[in-house]
Amino acid sequence: MSNTIIYFLRATSVETSPLPGLINRITTHYNPTILPTWSLQQLLFRSTPSPAAGDGNPKAIPPRYLQLVTLPDYPNDTLVAITPPAPNSTTNDDDEDDETTKKPSATVISIPAGPSTDEFTELLLTKFGPLWQRRRVVAVIEGSAMEVWGFRVRAGELRTDVGAAQVVRGVIVEVSHVGQSADGEEGRDGEGMARAFWDGLGVEGAREFRGREVGKRDDVFGNVRLWCQVLLLNDLYQRN
User: Fold this and answer.
1) For 46-68, what is the mean pLDDT?
2) Which residue, 10, 19, 13, is CA-closest to 154?
């Protein structure tokens, strides 16, 4: 079972970020151990529409999504995740917006960060350009991290590129239970304990994403699949 839950707090305006208030709430209620800053990045590609695809065409081929993701738990790797089309899905460009649609779990591999990642990205943009269309870049830069009573909290501003500028869409928070449960077994019911910790903070208006249905219990990439599922939701990057 997953030990991690991800939360998203939407920014109400370009000038306002929920991050300072969240950090202040944690430091006021607890005496956290401050951890090194963290970052993530997602480069998203969408499969090129099939020539057979068209409005009202029942044989249109649904899209697939390819993500290049860097996460703090994998500092030396880039994660490559390909999400296949959901059964009975359509080719609507906003397919990734629908949080309620149960999509198949992504296939995930890792490649070394650095030159290998650069070469792979270049291949996607050039040689494989007819197959994959670049969609967006999402990043967290120098997010805050802390540990409290066996819980690790990572929080940072989720930014997207809009022209030459970066726009804060909201705050993404990863809450993980990294200690032992009451019965002494590390990680047992860690997801439930992480949720109880978050509920204790009294933060309102956050969207919750759990990894219970993402991958199997012993899946080493379980949290990667959870992050990819969350970052794929297009409505995270839209204003109310």
Assistant:
1) 75
2) 19
Contact 172, 7 (CB under 8 A): yes
Compute how many other C-beta atoms are within 10 angstroms of the C-beta atom of residue 191: 19
User: What's the confidence (pLDDT) of residue 56?
Assistant: 60
Cα(125)–Cα(133) distance, integer angstroms:
8
For the segment 77-85, the average pLDDT, to the nearest whole number, is 89
Answer whether 6's CB lies under 8 Å from 209's CB. Answer: yes
CA distance 10 to 53: 34
If residue 229 lies in a helix (H) or strand (E), which one and from where to where? helix 222-231
Phi-psi region of 214 (alpha: psi -120 to 50; beta: other; left: phi over 0): beta
Strand, coil or helix: 167? strand
Question: CA–CA separation, 238 vs 240, rounded Å?
Answer: 7
The CA-atom distances, in angstroms, between 143 and each of 29, 35, 37, 138 are 20, 10, 5, 14
* Strand bridging mode 107-112 / 77-83: antiparallel
E-strand spans in 149-237?
A: 151-162, 165-177, 207-210
d(CA 230, CA 87): 19
Q: How far apart are CA 114 and CA 101, in angstroms?
A: 35
Q: Render pLDDT for 158-194 as a digit per residue (tens, 0 to 9).
A: 988 766 677 888 899 999 888 765 445 544 567 788 8
What is the Cα–Cα distance from 159 to 116, expressed in whole angstroms? 25
CA of residue 194 relative to chain centroid, distance: 17
pTM assigned to the model: 0.82
